[in-house]
C-alpha cells in the first residue's frame, strides 16, 4: 500500500475518529461512514484512563479530550452500611501528571470529531455499512444500506459492539454476551452536596452498586450497576420512563448509607445500558478488512478501559500501516492483531474480575467488605497496575515502525 491509499472507516463513535486521525498522520486518505444521522450522544459519561490519554497524546488529541473532562485520579470505597473501605488510585498518575479523567461521552465524541474534521477528514453521516468483502485480493468493497457501494484499499471496522464488519470478516464470529447487569447513570444538580475534588466515590450497597462524583459547580456525575436477570429489549428500554428506573433504584438503595436518594431524586435524563462483554474474537482481520475498538474486543465497563483500548488500537494499527508497501499490507494487519491481542485479553480478564465484586449476595458482600480494606492496600500500590495504566505505547509504535 502506498501513501494516499484510500481507507474507509465504518463507525464514528470513539474509535472511528481517532483511527482516522492516526491513519491520516500515517499518510492515508480516510473517509468515515457513520450509520447514525447525527452526533452520537449515547451514554452519559466515561472514565478515560492515563493509558488511553497517552495513546491520544501520540497523535496530539489528548488536549482536546481532557478539555472536556475533569481529573478523577482517586476513588473512595464505601460499604452500604457507611463503613469506609479505603481509598484507592483510579488508574495511575504518570510522571508527566496525566491521570484518569471523567468526561461526558457526548463532549468527548464532539471533541474527537471536531479534531478529525479540522484535519480534513470527511465524515459521512446516515450511511450504514451493511456488507463488506475483499475482491481481487486487494480491494475492499463496501456496501451501504441505501444500495450504493464504494471501494477502498482498506476498510476499518470501528462499528462497535454489534459490528457488521466482524461478521463480514468471520460469519462465525462470537456475539456479545449479556452480563446480567444494567448500567444506569446520568447527571444531577444537588446544591446540598459538597464537591468531591478529584475523587469518585463508590458505594457497595446491599443490593446494587453506586458511583458518584460532585464537580466544583455541584453537578453530580452518577451511575449504578444493578443485577437484572433477563436482558431488556430495545423497545422495553425505550418505553420505560425515567421515573420507573428512579423508583427501582430508590428501592434498591433503601437502607444503604450514602447520598443516593438526593442524587436520584434530582437526576436529570437517566440512561440505561445492558452490560455486555464478548468471548475472544478469533479473527480481527481478513483480506483488506480489519477491526478496532469494541468491534474486536468489548470489555465490561468495570475497568473503565473500553475507550482507552480503542485508542490504543487506533494508534498501534496506524503505526503498523505506516510506510507499508502494497504486498506488506496483510502482514501489517496480522502483526497489529498479534501485537494487541495479549494486552487486550489481559484487560478483559481484569475487567471481568472487577465486575464480579459489584453485585453479590449477603455472604459475598460480608466477605467483600471484610477483605476489601486488605485488598485495597494491594490495589493502592502503583506497581500492581503499571502494566495497565503506564503502558509504554511509544514502545509499541517504535516496534511497529521498526
Ligand atoms: C454503560 C457503559 C459504560 C462505559 N464506561 C466506560 C468507561 O468508563 N471507560 C471506558 O473507557 N469505556 C467505557 N465504556 C466502553 C466504551 O464506551 C466503549 O469501549 C467505546 O465506546 C468503544 O468505542 P467504539 O468506537 O469501538 O464503539 P462505539 O463508541 O460504540 O462506536 C461505534 C459507532 O459505529 C456506528 N456504527 C455501528 N454500526 C455501523 C455500521 N454498520 N455502519 C456505520 N456505522 C456503524 C455506531 O452508530 C457508533 O457511532 C462503557 C460502555 C458502556 C455501555
Care to describe what's here?
This protein is α/β, with parallel strands linked by helices and 402 residues long. The chain has 2 domains: 6-71 and 103-176 and 278-359 and 396-400, FAD/NAD(P)-binding domain, CATH 3.50.50.60; 177-277, D-Amino Acid Oxidase, Chain A, domain 2 (2-Layer Sandwich). The chain is built from 13 helices and 19 strands. The protein has helices at residues 15-25, 50-57, 62-67, 105-118, 164-169, 234-239, 242-252, 260-266, 306-321, 329-355, 362-380, 386-389, 393-401, and strands at residues 6-10, 29-34, 45-48, 69-71, 74-79, 84-89, 101-104, 122-125, 129-135, 139-144, 149-152, 154-157, 177-189, 199-204, 208-214, 219-227, 267-277, 285-286, 289-291. The strands form 4 sheets. A 7-stranded mixed β-sheet has the order 6-5-14-15-16-13-17. A 6-stranded mixed β-sheet has the order 8-2-1-12-19-18. Strands 3-7-4 form a 3-stranded antiparallel β-sheet. Strand 9 and strand 10 (139-144) form a beta hairpin. The longest helix is centred in the last third of the chain and has 27 residues, at 329-355. The model has no long low-confidence stretch (mean pLDDT 91).
Features:
402 residues; alpha/beta; FAD/NAD(P)-binding domain; D-Amino Acid Oxidase, Chain A, domain 2; six-stranded mixed β-sheet; 19 strands; globular; binds flavin-adenine dinucleotide
Amino acid at each position: 500500500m502506498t501513501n494516499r491509499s484510500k481507507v474507509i472507516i465504518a463507525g464514528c463513535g470513539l474509535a472511528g475518529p481517532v483511527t482516522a486521525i492516526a491513519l491520516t498522520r500515517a499518510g492515508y486518505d480516510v473517509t468515515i461512514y457513520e450509520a447514525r444521522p447525527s452526533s452520537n450522544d449515547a451514554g452519559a459519561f466515561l472514565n478515560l484512563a492515563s493509558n488511553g490519554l497517552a495513546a491520544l497524546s501520540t497523535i496530539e488529541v489528548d488536549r482536546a479530550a481532557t478539555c472536556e473532562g475533569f481529573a478523577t485520579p482517586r476513588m473512595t470505597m464505601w460499604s452500604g452500611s457507611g463503613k469506609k473501605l479505603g481509598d484507592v488510585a483510579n488508574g495511575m498518575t504518570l510522571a508527566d501528571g496525566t491521570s484518569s479523567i471523567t468526561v461526558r461521552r457526548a463532549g468527548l465524541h464532539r471533541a474527537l470529531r471536531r479534531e478529525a474534521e479540522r484535519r480534513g477528514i470527511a465524515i459521512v453521516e446516515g450511511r450504514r455499512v451493511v456488507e463488506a468483502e475483499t475482491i481481487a485480493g486487494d480491494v475492499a468493497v463496501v456496501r451501504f444500506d441505501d444500495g450504493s457501494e464504494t471501494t477502498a484499499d482498506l476498510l476499518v471496522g470501528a462499528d462497535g459492539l454489534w459490528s457488521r464488519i466482524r461478521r463480514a470478516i468471520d460469519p462465525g464470529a462470537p456475539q456479545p454476551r449479556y452480563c446480567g447487569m444494567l448500567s444506569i447513570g446520568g447527571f444531577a444538580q444537588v446544591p446540598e452536596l459538597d464537591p468531591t475534588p478529584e475523587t469518585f466515590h463508590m458505594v457497595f450497597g446491599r443490593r446494587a452498586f453506586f458511583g458518584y462524583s460532585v464537580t466544583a459547580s455541584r453537578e453530580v456525575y452518577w451511575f449504578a450497576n444493578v443485577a437484572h436477570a433477563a436482558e431488556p429489549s430495545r423497545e422495553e428500554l425505550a418505553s420505560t420512563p425515567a421515573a420507573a428506573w428512579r423508583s427501582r433504584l430508590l428501592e434498591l438503595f433503601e437502607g444503604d448509607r450514602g447520598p443516593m436518594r438526593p442524587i436520584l431524586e434530582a437526576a436529570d435524563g437517566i440512561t440505561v445500558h445492558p452490560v455486555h462483554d464478548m468471548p475472544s474474537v478469533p479473527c480481527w482481520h481478513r483480506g483488506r478488512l480489519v477491526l478496532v475498538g469494541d468491534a474486536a474486543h468489548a470489555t465490561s465497563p468495570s475497568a473503565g478501559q473500553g475507550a482507552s483500548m480503542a485508542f490504543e488500537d487506533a494508534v498501534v494499527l496506524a503505526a503498523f500501516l505506516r510506510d507499508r508497501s502494497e504486498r506488506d499490507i496483510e502482514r501489517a494487519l496480522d502483526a497489529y492483531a498479534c501485537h494487541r491481542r495479549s494486552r487486550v485479553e489481559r484487560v478483559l480478564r481484569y475487567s471481568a474480575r472487577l465486575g464480579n465484586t459489584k453485585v453479590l449476595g449477603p455472604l459475598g458482600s460480608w466477605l467483600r467488605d471484610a477483605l476489601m480494606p486488605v485488598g485495597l492496600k494491594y490495589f493502592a500500590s502503583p506497581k500492581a497496575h503499571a502494566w495497565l495504566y503506564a503502558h509504554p505505547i511509544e514502545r509499541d509504535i517504535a516496534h511497529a515502525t521498526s
